[in-house]
């Protein structure tokens, strides 16, 4: 899904509650909210102001726990700035009303993001009521190895959470002509197709400081086809599919994971 989130945590939580209710009404079992759904993202990616960073929340923060409570029977993935001791991470959690199912800390950092966040160290899939899920945050999906590591770990669904802006260095007059807009869609489709998995891509919308976010949430099938999408405005992209059956069909003749040659890549069974 695509929506805007900012620094006001109570407002963000109210919006999360509304979006979960809309998704539940439409019969969704999995909802992937954007990166930084609690507290918003950076206002300036190249030179973040240390005095205006998103609020940092520990895992037991009341706002974090409230999202799990709101999720109830649904599986909900969302992002926030995590506080862990003296370190801060760009993190994502996947929850139900029973608690945390899985977590991810963004590994790949563009431009000045290291001022606001420490890097994560790996990619792992986890079991959920809707299937085995792995998560990527923003820039992670630029690197094929990220999604491949999740697929090798058995991920059937990749939840790609983003606060992905239009091009910072070469702004286009129309979003459809924007380089980052094209890449955002390209990466979503390529990561799904090369691993033959379902990919649910979320993103922020609107603007924060000098950042203008793309939206363009979507569900991509294991053949790389976009099954449902939003555009630049807020909305929920809903696709109804049998994940296991779709993956089995995609891998029936050409199975990319079993036909890999890891010994030729120099990285062992990890890739």
Model description:
The chain has one domain: Carbon-nitrogen hydrolase (Nitrilase/N-carbamoyl-D-aminoacid amidohydrolase, 4-Layer Sandwich). It starts with a strand and ends in a 6-residue tail after the last helix. With 271 residues, the chain is of the alpha/beta class. A 6-stranded mixed β-sheet has the order 7-8-9-10-14-15. Strands 2, 3, 4, 5 and 6 form a 5-stranded mixed β-sheet that branches. The mean pLDDT is 96. 24% of the residues lie in helices and 24% in strands. α3 (144-152) packs parallel to α4. It contains 6 helices and 15 strands.
Number of domains: 1
Biggest beta sheet attributes: 6 strands, mixed
Question: What CATH architecture would you give?
Answer: 4-Layer Sandwich
CATH topology assignment: Nitrilase/N-carbamoyl-D-aminoacid amidohydrolase
CATH class: Alpha Beta
In spatial order, strands of the major sheet run 7-8-9-10-14-15
Form type = globular
Number of helices: 6
Short characterization:
This protein has 271 residues and is α/β, with parallel strands linked by helices. Helix content is 24%, strand content 24%. It is built from 6 helices and 15 strands.
Structure characteristics:
Nitrilase/N-carbamoyl-D-aminoacid amidohydrolase; 6-stranded mixed β-sheet; alpha/beta; 6 helices; 271 residues; 5-stranded mixed β-sheet; 15 strands
